[in-house]
Amino acid sequence: MSQETWDAVDDYLAATLVKADAVLEQALAASQAAGLPAISVSPPQGKFLHLLARVQGARNILEIGTLGGYSAIWLARALPPGAGRLVTLEVEPKHAEVARANLARAGFAHVAQVRLGRAVDSLAELEREGAGPFDFVFIDADKPSNPDYFAWALKLTRRGAVIVVDNVVRGGEVADASSTNAAVQGVRRLNAMIAAEPRVSATAIQTVGVKGYDGFAVALVVS
């Protein structure tokens, strides 16, 4: 199997099951025009997150790592019509500006709040404000900080909440305990933390596609 095959299958799945979407395509185009890195989730992955949030019945969603707002649009669409909210955290001012514009274009200006600043600071602010509990959390930010983000996710969620972490396979490097890659070690610390945490039941799934070889961790808060 090759990246060419993975790309072809993703293109087929997106065309067949996800369908063309002008709003989402405009969000990606605006992100590209602004020079943002092309690291958004793929269309099938975006719909996967959307479906997970809908199955969970989420009304209060937290995203750590906004980028241009592509995944935020997918998650906002999972909220019940006329109800619920999305809080998404971004450290880069330019990214936050693009995301706000993309979310407004998608009709979520009054549903989605883009908070600018270091995620750990924003998470502490959310706790002080009593913003939780969140029903669904998507973590897709700097990988060395994954354990910190997961710890905050546990503080800000309730029993029955779902926490999803992106990019946990790292092209297979996650299996290499001797890796000197800070992102890989951040994921390994996250996995060890999840394994030792009695409040969650979790697994991780390997994925291939236009994003290459990677995967998601999915945790259910059980207590």
Based on the model shown, name its key terms.
alpha/beta, 223 residues, seven-stranded mixed sheet, Rossmann fold, 44% helix, 8 helices
Helix amount, in percent?
Answer: 40-55%
What name is given to the CATH topology? Rossmann fold
Low-confidence stretches: none
Structural class: alpha/beta
Corresponding CATH architecture? 3-Layer(aba) Sandwich
Query: So what's the overall shape?
Result: globular
Q: Would you count the extended β strands for me?
A: 7
What does this structure look like?
With 223 residues, the protein is α/β, with parallel strands linked by helices. It has a single domain, classed as 3-Layer(aba) Sandwich (Rossmann fold). The chain contains 8 helices and 7 strands. It has helices spanning 3-18, 22-33, 43-56, 70-76, 93-105, 119-129, 146-156, 182-195, and strands spanning 60-64, 85-90, 112-116, 134-139, 157-166, 200-209, 212-221. A 7-stranded mixed beta sheet has the order 3-2-1-4-5-7-6, with helices on both faces. Strand 4, helix 7 and strand 5 (157-166) form a beta-alpha-beta unit. Helix 2 (22-33) packs antiparallel against helix 5 and helix 6 runs parallel beside helix 7. The longest helix has 16 residues, at 3-18. The protein is globular, with a radius of gyration of 17 Å.
